[in-house]
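Aim 2, interim progress: modelling of the fe (ii) ion-bound target.
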Amino acid sequence: MFVEAIEGAWQDSSTLGRRFVVKSGQQIDVLQNSNISGVFINTALGHNITGSASPSGAKNISTATKEDKLETAGKIRGQAAVAKGLIQDVCEGRTITVEAFTPLVDDVARAMEDNPSLYIGMSRLRSRDSATFVHSLAVAALMLHFGRSIQMDDETIQHLCMAGILHDIGKLSIPKEILQKQGPLTVAERSLIEQHPDRGHQLLLAHTGMPKLVLDICRSHHERLDGKGYPDRMSAENIGTEVRMSTICDVFDALTSARPYKKGWSSQQALSWMLCREEQFDKTLLWQFVLSLDPEMTKGIL
Ligand SMILES: [Fe+2]
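Predicted structure of the complex, ligand included:
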């Protein structure tokens, strides 16, 4: 069995590396007992032995062929390109309606029905150039999935998805060198980055008919329940459910994504970290989010 890639916290220092042929049951035990969230088995280079014939019963390991992975990557790139076009239209002041987002929202909804972990798996593979657009798309997909899982109505779900696509639009006016800086930020740089919700909100306000929920999420997705968020240091009672959901989806995607300066965390690591921060996130909503995810992604938490 040939392991093409590993998702999650896998030690590169492991003697196995990240791409290798599995030759023994002992090696499958090492995989099962590690903190990884999944492996991708390239069936073109060997048999998949993770089923019942596995010497150590490694059937809990999720599998996808290289072809599946490439098809998924293509789908995400296509959707990110559509999201980029919509975001640029808004940035450049072209008239845009809620209906303009419908085909992309429908496409994301279909993809989430086929494979709910699609965007989470791909978020670690994003390139630096498309990072903002893929992040926006991933947050949109998570918001849609989250909204559906708690039976929100269709219009709210559509607006949640649209908000996911547009929430970081203010970042496009901040220099890339600062957004992608690998070392610590100066006070001035931090302050500039913290302007992105307000800048985005101003940009969206210029569009008549922009749903209130989209405006609120754009402005307030970095607010915290303890009042230490930005830009308005809102207190918990003023932060609505949809904004609280956006914070959860945004931080979850940020933590599980690879960045130029860090590897992505596994879903389990990210959720465990978030569950310890009641002062920051709505705990009831966070548990609802956990329950909405694929059990493979929450193993060890539930
Ligand atoms: Fe943001």
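Residues 168, 196, 221-222 surround fe (ii) ion (CB under 6 Å). Residues 14 and 30 are 10 Å apart (CA to CA).
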